[in-house]
Design goal:
The complex is a heterodimer of chains A (about 130) and B (about 675).
Chain A: H1 3-10, H2 17-23, H3 41-52, H4 56-59, H5 79-88, H6 102-114
Chain B: H1 11-36, H2 41-53, H3 64-71, H4 79-83, H5 91-101, E1 106-109, H6 116-125, E2 132-135, H7 139-153, E3 158-162, H8 165-179, E4 185-190, H9 201-204, E5 220-222, H10 227-242, E6 249-254, H11 255-259, H12 282-294, E7 298-302, H13 309-322, E8 326-328, E9 353-357, H14 362-366, E10 367-369, E11 377-379, E12 386-391, E13 412-415, H15 418-431, H16 435-464, H17 474-485, E14 490-492, H18 502-506, H19 527-538, E15 544-550, H20 551-556, H21 559-566, E16 571-576, H22 582-594, H23 616-622, E17 626-631, H24 634-649, E18 653-658
Parallel strand pairs in B: 1-2, 1-3, 3-4, 4-6, 5-6, 7-8, 7-9, 9-12, 12-13, 14-15, 15-16, 16-18, 17-18
Antiparallel strand pairs in B: 10-11
The chains are: A mainly alpha (about 130), B alpha/beta (about 675).
The structure holds thiamine diphosphate and magnesium ion.
Chain lengths: ~130, ~675
């Protein structure tokens, strides 16, 4: 379980009502790990779409997320949940199939799943605040 | 040692230059004044003579020529007019005396003839000390400097400007200060008496009611018609400005009053006793304490609350007494983020009682509006949660500008200053606490310690993502900046909202002065000048002031860096340069998505600050500030920041341009 979901659990908010409301659906989040990470052309294509479709505006060039959009690098969401968020969420600008085909969305998903793992905390002395 | 990238003007050179400028000013002022009096050729000759004599500071004994001039009657003058030819005791000297008695240490200004009388009094009669003039290259910067200065020092600054064009320029920054409850004394030069105006510009720079352009967002103003009236209005204005909710006030300085002879009348001293901040009603406070004690899960939310460290400590005392979490909205630094009771906004969702302290937006703590075509709203808090609000908002407000946010009918609403009311509330809570309630604190503490530590772990984990990204991730930016500030007595004089709140998430922020809060009205152009004003307030304490500067915001008011260089105000500015109006990119994207038109090819239009790329370091350098950048590779960041920090340690501003991830 991620630290974020442990925070919600400690707050007694298993899936925060507000989150469900903003998602506009009953997607279980944080969810189960998604499919296997893919590689190859699909992923590369997904990387270009990630840029051209402006996903980076809120999620960052490396999917790191921040105040404007959650982290999606190596997302743990299954594809269906991810797709539902992109299509119907009330949180992010909803991308309809008219501007982003199912195939393209899948490629973006494959790409964000494949973003390399960042260095572990122990290797980043600048993040040692103790 | 200071890096030798650029020569800095030697302070003694700067003083010499300032002296020369003063002389030049005196010469031209005397000449201009006489020409305006419509004197004949002889008078002009005398004036030139006088201008020559004025090469020495005004305190020198009068020369024979000067004495002769004072007893002569120039052509075209009556004896009475001749007596007033030279002004012995100008009204503006008294005006300055008042400013001094009220304790204004600085006056930020962009010079203008409508207050040339007061300017001359400040520099010659007052020796440009307490108050000292701060030269600003735009009135908006002057007002924003005053805003930043107040939030650190707790003292108002004077902002001296033309009542017409100057106030027009200042207005947006005044609006920010109004929204952010930052007092300042706006001093506006104007010539009300029409027959007293010089032809031409003096008419364009006069108004019947010059404060009108800003009246919607100041607390009070006056247009005094006598010097005594001025004195009382200044005292009244200061008192009103500082009374919670604090805010800007304006006093018009009539040009004639400034320049005319005040004579030997004793205009009397001026004194002001500031109001003690109002506390909430005792019975209501007792009721609030009862509600908090009865609550299973009380949560405190604080925004524009703490004025100083005392406010922080008072909030800690209340939170600890109840073991209630505090959601700091960081309009001010209200609560140490290292404390186990410092919690994120999600804590509100489980609260049965929410105590709001000086909230900018009570409704927004409890509800939210979805950004979609149908702007429906939903409650974020539990349906049964009761809301207590303590604040000074309702004690003073205005109608036109809607910064007061959506109306929320709190279940218990207490009008009063929250910082002043907190000790009463804490006492009431402690005295009403049953042994059982006290005993429950251990479990509460354990729970919040766990959530706090999970959130801390989450922040560190999140910060790893994009660590080596080019351009630099905002988490990395703040992690690298921490290396610079951690061993110094630091203060962040900017808001980290656009940088995914990484200062708040990563850095230990424990002192009130370490975090300045936001702009208030979200009017851009606030960042640089407010940071310079704040850094000025930090200067006597020897603190290391850091401004993380958004690129778009910087381009409205880059002249503020010149003011920092000119006045030797140490400040490290590091850009969060995402080469665009990023906030607006995201809005455009939302619109395009909603309309199913896409923005693949149009996203740049109206939003990008590229092609040509703006050389932000070049701009800073051109204002006399040591600068480096742009830095793209995160590996180059640490060394550049270290070099810049040395410059700041030497008492000067420095600037590093960093190309960053959007948020
Ligand atoms: C005076 C003013 N003009 C326009 C806006 C609208 N606006 C809000 S955010 C924004 C973009 C600001 O760009 P920048 O300061 O670089 O911050 P970024 O969003 O890129 O991080 C703009 C133009 C505003 N708030 N104030
Ligand atoms: Mg920007």
């Amino acid at each position: 379980m991620s630290a974020r979901s442990r925070i919600y659990r400690a707050l007694g908010l298993a899936v925060p009502a507000l989150l469900l409301w903003t998602l506009g659906c009953a997607v279980a989040w944080p969810g189960e790990p998604g499919d296997e990470v893919r590689e190859g052309d699909e992923v590369r294509e997904g990387g270009s779409l990630y840029i051209s479709q402006q996903c980076w505006q809120c999620h960052g060039y490396e999917g790191q997320g921040g105040v404007a959009g959650v982290r999606i690098a190596r997302t743990a969401l299954p594809y269906e949940a991810f797709a539902r968020l992109v299509r119907f969420t009330n949180l992010m600008p909803a991308y309809s199939p008219k501007v982003l085909s199912d195939e393209q969305l899948r490629q973006i998903y494959d790409y964000v799943r494949s973003i390399p793992e960042p260095p572990p905390l122990e290797e980043i002395p600048e993040l040692d605040f103790d | 040692m200071k890096p030798d990238k650029q020569p800095h003007p030697d302070p003694s050179e700067r003083e010499e230059a300032a002296r020369v400028n003063r002389r030049d000013f005196l010469s031209s002022a005397v000449a201009a004044g006489v020409a305006a009096a419509g004197a004949g050729a002889a008078a002009n000759a005398s004036a030139r003579q006088a201008a020559g004599d004025a090469q020495e500071p005004g305190a020198m004994p009068p020369t024979a020529a000067q004495e002769a001039m004072e007893s002569e009657i120039p052509d075209g003058y009556t004896a009475g007019q001749a007596r007033e030819y030279f002004v012995r005791n100008p009204g503006s000297d008294f005006m300055l005396d008042v400013i001094r008695q009220l304790g204004l240490e600085y006056i930020a200004t962009n010079p203008g003839s409508s207050f040339r009388g007061l300017q001359e009094s400040i520099v010659n009669y007052g020796g440009n000390q307490a108050p000292e003039l701060l030269t600003c290259v735009h009135e908006e910067q002057a007002a924003a400097m005053a805003h930043g200065y107040y939030k650190v020092g707790g003292k108002p600054m004077g902002v001296l400007c033309h009542g017409t064009v100057g106030l027009q320029h200042a207005s947006m920054a005044v609006y920010n200060a109004w929204c952010d409850r930052a007092p300042m004394m706006l001093l506006a030069g104007n010539h009300l008496e029409a027959t007293d105006r010089r032809a031409g510009v003096e008419w364009s720079h006069s108004a019947q009611d010059c404060v009108r352009v800003i009246r919607d967002y100041i607390k009070w103003d006056d247009m005094p018609l006598s010097l005594r009236h001025y004195a009382e209005s200044m005292a009244r204005g200061l008192k009103i400005a500082m009374t919670p909710p604090a805010g800007p006030v304006a006093v018009v300085l009539d040009g004639h009053l400034q320049e005319a002879e005040a004579g030997d009348r004793d205009l009397g001293p001026v004194a002001v006793t500031l109001n003690r901040p109002p506390t909430g009603d005792e019975a209501a406070v007792a009721e609030a304490a009862r509600w908090l004690l009865e609550a299973e899960s009380p949560v405190i939310v604080a925004d524009l609350m703490a004025r100083d460290q005392v406010g922080v400590e008072r909030l800690v005392a209340l939170a600890e007494a109840l073991q209630a979490p505090v959601v700091n909205q960081f309009g001010r630094m209200n609560f140490p983020n290292t404390h186990h009771l410092s919690q994120g906004a999600a804590a509100v969702a489980q609260a049965d009682v929410v105590l709001g302290l000086e909230l900018f937006d009570v409704w927004g703590v409890i509800n939210t509006v979805r950004d979609r075509v149908h702007r429906d709203s939903v409650r974020k808090a539990r349906p049964d949660a009761r809301v207590i609000s303590i604040g000074s908002n309702d004690l003073f407000t205005k109608s036109n500008y809607q910064n007061f946010q959506r109306f929320y009918p709190s279940d218990l609403s207490i009008a009063g200053d929250a910082q002043a009311t907190l000790p009463l509330l804490t006492d009431a809570a402690l005295s009403g606490m049953t042994p059982a309630r006290r005993a429950s604190n251990a479990a509460r503490e354990a729970r919040w310690r766990e959530v706090h530590s999970l959130a801390r772990g989450q922040a560190l984990d999140d910060a790893r993502y994009g660590w080596n990204a080019v351009p630099v991730s905002t988490a990395r930016l703040y992690a690298e900046l921490w290396q610079v500030v951690k061993d110094r007595d630091w203060a962040l004089v900017s808001d980290d909202g656009a940088q995914s709140r990484w200062a708040r998430r990563l850095w230990p922020i424990e002192r009130h002065y370490q975090y300045i809060g936001r702009s208030g009205g979200a009017g851009l152009g606030y960042g640089a000048p407010a940071a310079v004003g704040a850094a000025l307030a930090h200067r006597p304490e020897g603190r290391f002031a850091l401004n993380v500067q958004k690129d778009g915001d910087m381009m409205y008011t880059p002249g503020a860096f010149w003011t920092a260089a000119y006045h030797g105000i140490p400040l490290l500015t590091v850009t969060h340069n995402n080469q665009g109006y990023h906030q607006e990119y995201m809005h455009l994207q939302r619109m395009a998505a909603r309309r199913q038109r896409g923005i693949e090819s149009s996203w740049r239009v109206g939003n990008e600050l590229r092609n040509p790329d703006i050389d932000l370091a070049g701009i800073a350098r051109a204002t006399g500030v040591w600068a480096e950048g742009p830095i793209l590779d995160p590996a180059d960041l640490g060394p550049a920041l270290a070099r810049a920090a040395e410059v700041v340690d030497g008492g000067e501003p420095a600037f590093v341009d960093v190309r960053c991830q959007p948020r």
